[in-house]
Amino acid sequence: MIDGTAAALPVGRIGPSKGRSVRVQRLADAARAIRRRDLEMVSTAGLGHIGGDLSAADIVTVLVLGVLNVDPTRPATPDRDRFVMSKGHCSGLLYTALAARGFFDQSLLNSYMMPLSPLNGHPDINKVPGVEANTGPLGHGLPIAVGMAIAAQLRRSQSRTFCLMGDGELQEGSNWEAFLAAGHRGLDRLAVVVDRNGLQQGGGTEETSRLEPLSDKARSFGWAVAEVDGHDHGALLDLFENLPVAAGKPSFIIARTHKGHPVSFMRDRVEWHHRPPSNTELVAALEELR
Amino acid sequence: MNVTSSAVLADCRDAFASTVMEMAAADERVVVVCSDSVGSSKLVEFKRRFPDRLINVGIAEQALIGLAAGLANGGLRPIVSAASCFVTARALEQIKVDLAYTNARVVVCGMSPGVAYGELGPTHHSVEDVAWLRAIDNMVVVVPADPRETGQALWAAMEHDGPAFIRVSRMGVPPVYGDNYHFRLGKASRLVEGQDVSIITNGTLVARALEAADALRDMEVRCRVISMPTVKPLDVDEVVRAAAETGAIVTVEEHSTRGGLGGAVAETVVEHQPAPVRIMGFPGFAPTGSAEFLLEHFGLTAHGIADAALELMKRKG
């Protein structure tokens, strides 16, 4: 962090009691604050996955601060909504958003990846309140989310399950087992959000192992598909609050995003997958996020 | 113990099936998750009685384990039932991360383990499962000897605050335990007292180890027989006592000779009470043959075990 002062985060839910336009503005402000804080954390740690964090920051901000029905003072409430961060390498973003929602004190963020910190490089459900699954190896989050959604169905709970996935992650076969299972069961309280920035660690998804036509694939597995601008807070909010996309089917949301967004020298550049910003780069990035 | 060759052989899957039905009747959170393994897990009756609580994910072991972890997070008490060879190998990372690292309360039942699938060959044998799973923190690993122990181990695993793996044998076994047996997680049972040599065993081979001890008694060799159903956490005290008091240990299991019960015992003996150890099991991929043939072929018979004990005793200090 610079000058020893962390960027201020909003704390608490940005819920429906406010009017839509106020709410969307607050979510946009919150997303900016979360990006700033995350950049500082990753820069201080010298570790992290800032490209994917910035790509998914708007999705995660809208979900965690705006949408999830959770009580940070009682994180294990049985009927809570569940948010599975399947792209667990984007822990910096997850921790920052959970702190902003009030699951733990923001000062803990200073310990990101420091020795013995609860904030490991990948999330640990037993150490960090608000974390719902131990992700990191790709292709684990969705099967877990499907289990959560089946449990809610059997328990006749109103709990909703959201699973954020990277697009490169879709190359893992375990996901397609889970897509089959959820489609077969018509789990319409389950929504997958794909952070479709088109880049994975080593290059483009389409040049590595082609995913398109992705929406056709999802439909053929029995999912209802919606596409959205993954950086448009209003559009994300409207979509998340009007799920399912189709009754009787799980929702597959393709969120069009840009890795590193909106920092000019990071945007759409694959090398920012896991490169920590230098101090000079941090200052420049924060300047752009004022 | 009264194990005789004329005893009626039992299939531990029947005990599994009746126990999970008792559990489901007692607790509405209990669900069974399987991978197109309803028949092979003997779950037809469970499916009839609790149709909503039998979750068949199809032939998809990775999703099977991940989904069970999600069911546990969602407030249910899942019991996974699938062929041991597939669920442990194919979903090993899910077992490590989704169950063990998470400390999820999921009981994984590895059906038809060891060489139960006999002639189907090494693709279907599960002789590495204990080694793989006992290397993982938080995992409990149990290898029951007979139907009674299988049922009791299931109840104990269900009460345990974390994940557990239980082998459920398909190969017929004679009953080993009587009405007064009480399984305790992490505790061995001394089935026969003796001071000359110890056999530490579990699973389908406990009955054969008892027969070996009978044969040794006829030769004036007093052989201690220890049943060690819980491989993790191991009953270290009982192993150390066996090494100190009998000076030689033969381990016998329906598993690879690398990393299973034998490995666990050897680690303990080397560290706490050095003594000669002979590890009996499968040294490699098995040739074609029935389960019964393969046990014979690799000397996992009463005579083979007794001979190994006599040989090992020559190495006592």
What this model shows, in words?
- The complex is a heterodimer of chains A (290) and B (317).
- Chain A has a single domain, classed as 3-Layer(aba) Sandwich (Rossmann fold), CATH 3.40.50.
- Helices cover 38% and strands 11% of the residues of chain A.
- Chain A has 290 residues and is an alpha/beta fold.
- In chain A, the strands form 2 sheets. In chain A, strands 1-2-3-7-6 form a 5-stranded parallel β-sheet, sandwiched between helices.
- The model of chain A has no long low-confidence stretch (mean pLDDT 96).
- With 317 residues, chain B is of the alpha/beta class.
- A 7-stranded mixed β-sheet of chain B has the order 2-1-3-4-6-5-10, with helices on both faces. Chain B has a 5-stranded mixed β-sheet with strand order 7-9-8-11-12, sandwiched between helices.
- Mean pLDDT of chain B is 96; it is low at 1-5.
- The longest helix of chain B has 15 residues, at 12-26.
- The chains are: A alpha/beta (290), B alpha/beta (317).
Name the shape of chain B in a single word.
Answer: globular
CATH homologous superfamily placement of the largest domain in chain B: Thiamin diphosphate (ThDP)-binding fold, Pyr/PP domains
Question: How widely separated are the two ends of chain B?
Answer: 31 Å
By CATH reckoning, the class of the largest domain in chain B would read Alpha Beta
The number of helical segments of chain B is: 12
Order of helices and strands of chain B: HEHEHEHHEHEHEEEHEEHEHEHH
Q: What is the strand arrangement across the widest sheet of chain A?
A: 1-2-3-7-6
| Mean pLDDT value of chain B | 96
Note the gap between the termini of chain A: 15 Å
Percentage of residues in helical conformation of chain B: 25-40%
CATH level 3 topology of chain A? Rossmann fold
